[in-house]
Amino acid sequence: MRIGALLFLMVVVAGGVRAETVRFAGGGGALLEAVLFRPEGPPRAPAVVALHGCAGPLPARDHAWARHLAGLGHLVLLPDSFGSRGLGSQCRTGNRSVTASGLRRDDALAAARWLADQPGTPAGGVAVLGWSDGGSTVLATAAWRQDNPPGLLRGFVAFYPGCRQAALNRGARPVAPVLLLIGEADDWTPAAPCRDLAGRVGPRITLVTYPGAWHDFDAAAPLHRMRDIPRSQNPDHGVHAGQDPAAREDAFQRVPAFLDALPPAP
């Protein structure tokens, strides 16, 4: 065991996939708790950091993805940026202390470094995946900055992120390929700014939109309305979220294919 990481739980979840609870230093000196999913055999590249949305970890969705990817051979690490700091769901919080471009980006980089340093992690860099606020964190992490560690970040997958801020940042360019998946009907994080972003950045971003799909299209929950969401187009009207089976199935096939095609990190 490496110094700075505490393993205190290991279980077999399905098909030989093992889940371990670990801790390591995150942004701002916080001690992050995370779940690491290990495949049955030797891991295949790339290892994956997966970032929860504004509600915090949602095992029905997040762990389903982790089991799916680990079942295909990938290491998958799911850090908890909110619970590790004593916070609950942030979906109805307007002014957040833990933001996508701030501490959450720092957490993503810390998680990627920690995962890359573990014995048996494949060389060539780590992929970062995230949902909603985690997807926005993916875009913030993907944007080139002077503090981006060379050779660490291999690729990015952003599920229904908020693209508006990234689209406004005209100087932003991804350090590695990005797969961006979003529903055409999404009224929480609309698809239009993501189209603008992909059109400006060019081939580094592969944009996939799903007609008729809402926010959380890959989640377990059926379609429902959420009210009092301050970071939405119409907080009084609320937003819609819930599974779209066709979009979910496509994503479950498309994401592993994207990961397999990624070249080593620059």
UniProtKB/TrEMBL annotation:
Q: Does the keyword Ion transport apply?
A: no
Q: What positions does the domain Dienelactone hydrolase occupy?
A: 32-260
Q: Does the keyword Cell membrane apply?
A: no
Give the organism the record lists: Rhodovastum atsumiense
The protein's matches in SUPFAM superfamilies, at most eight in alphabetical order, are given as: alpha/beta-Hydrolases
What keywords appear on the UniProt entry?
Hydrolase
Molecular function, one GO term: carboxylic ester hydrolase activity
Q: What is this protein called?
A: Dienelactone hydrolase family protein
- Species classification: Bacteria, Pseudomonadati, Pseudomonadota, Alphaproteobacteria, Acetobacterales
